[in-house]
Amino acid sequence: MKICAVICEFNPFHNGHEYILRQARQVTDADCILALMSGNFVQRGFPAVIDAYERAKCALSNGADIVLELPSVYSVASADKFAVGAVNILRSLPVTHLSMGVESDGEDISVAAKIRHDESHEFTDVLKSKLKAEGYAKALTAATAYEAARLGKDENVFTEMLSKPNNILAVAYKKALLDFDSDIKFVPIPRIGGEIKSELSGKYSSASAIRNNLGKNDIETTMPKQSYDILMSALADNPVDSKVYSAIMLYALKNASTDDIANTPDCAEGFEHKIKELATRAASYDELLSGLPTSRFTRGRIMRICVQTLLGITKKMQNSGYAYSRLLGIKRNALKLLGSFPDSVITNKQSESAIAPGMSDIFEIDKRAWDVYSVINGSRNKFYGKLTIVD
After folding, report:
1. What is the DSSP annotation of 288-342?
2. Residue 387 DSSP label
3. 389: Cα separation from own chain's centroid
4. pLDDT (tens digit, 9 = 90+) per residue, 242-296?
């Protein structure tokens, strides 16, 4: 039995995602495509455009056989932690392959991952030196490209390669597989549709471009019909209210202590004091975000710190090795596979008893995420919603 996993957000599910799922099945000859998908908050630190159950329906209608919810503690993490948490969950499952869409050559991705896994003295020295003046992401890219050049590769090619968002995650996934000494085979697939950008670019437009154009008819051609219909229906019934989210977020930051903020995974270097200071006097969440970014703390990182504060995610939680996930949806003909899955896959309320006592607070974070999401999109809390089964 070959099970190919795809770690994803599907925010929203578009033609490029359908292509990757189809290619992943074909290239790996998989019997099952398993999507480990972020819940209601995504890696860039903002709410998903529609909830996880609706996005699971989109995936199941367009190539996936099983959709599991990636815990919030990882879904709003930096690339490295996002990858380590997700890969650790996949290691607990009968997964044979891990696939994703990439912008560059798979061999270069493997080289970059091995450089970061090996952590040579030269690599570490350059990383430490660059960190004195740059943020972690830029310093890591510079150190990786430098080490690649020492191995006879083109430093400029690696610098460019590591500027692409999917490549960054691909390197993180491959490194996590190496760190865990996993037998899961990593299968990168060339993306279709060119660069990720904020403007629509025809049939294969990016998720960010689609989100930026939700009110326009042009997006219909960028998505499979089922996915488009599900998106439009969900947006008509329960759209995310950015003003409500802004108010909730600002309230949470105003009431959080500096220690609460400092204890979030992405906070460091006393940055909690700047966040707390601006939160005290800011009139809106947007005003807060506008006044915070620096060369070392990007807007995306700051948004993760904020949502981690809102949900109560701590450094300890993210480093706990938590490996539980919730079943969101499944194809009817894949139901038989659940018997081969471990108890760490939560299929209903009763199966929550399998969660280790020391891990229950992390599971509560997912419940809180659904609570918050239900407020900002004006819906009932669907945490215990009906499992999606697609024929």
Report:
1. HHHT---SSS-HHHHHHHHHHHHHT--HHHHTS----EEEEEEEGGGGGGGGGS-
2. P
3. 24
4. 999 999 999 999 999 999 999 999 999 999 999 999 999 999 999 999 998 887 8
Strands 185-190 and 388-390: unpaired
Q: Residue 131 belongs to what H/E stretch?
A: helix 121-131
Q: What is the dihedral of CA 11, 66, 2, 332, to 10 degrees?
A: -140
Strands, E assignment, 136-264: 185-190
Cα–Cα dist 73/4, whole Å: 23
Mean pLDDT over all residues of the chain? 95
Asked if residue 230 lies in contact with residue 367, where contact means CB atoms within 8 angstroms, the answer is no
Split at pLDDT 50, 70, 90, the class of 196 is low
Percent of the chain exceeding pLDDT 70 equals: 98
List beta partners, residue 69: 37, 326
The 10s digit of each residue's pLDDT in 85-108 is 999 999 999 999 999 999 988 899
φ and ψ of 55, to 5 deg: -70, -30
Three-class SS state of 287? helix
pLDDT at 195: 59
Q: Which residues of 242-273 are buried (b: 16+ CB within 10 A; e: fewer)?
A: eeebbebbbebbeebeeebbbbbbbbeeebbe
DSSP 78-118: -HHHHHHHHHHHHHTTT--EEEEEESS-HHHHHHHHHHHHH
End-to-end CA distance of the chain: 21
Cα angle 50, 173, 134; round to 5: 90
Question: By three-state DSSP, how is residue 345 classified?
Answer: strand
**Tokens linked to 315:** 């450094």
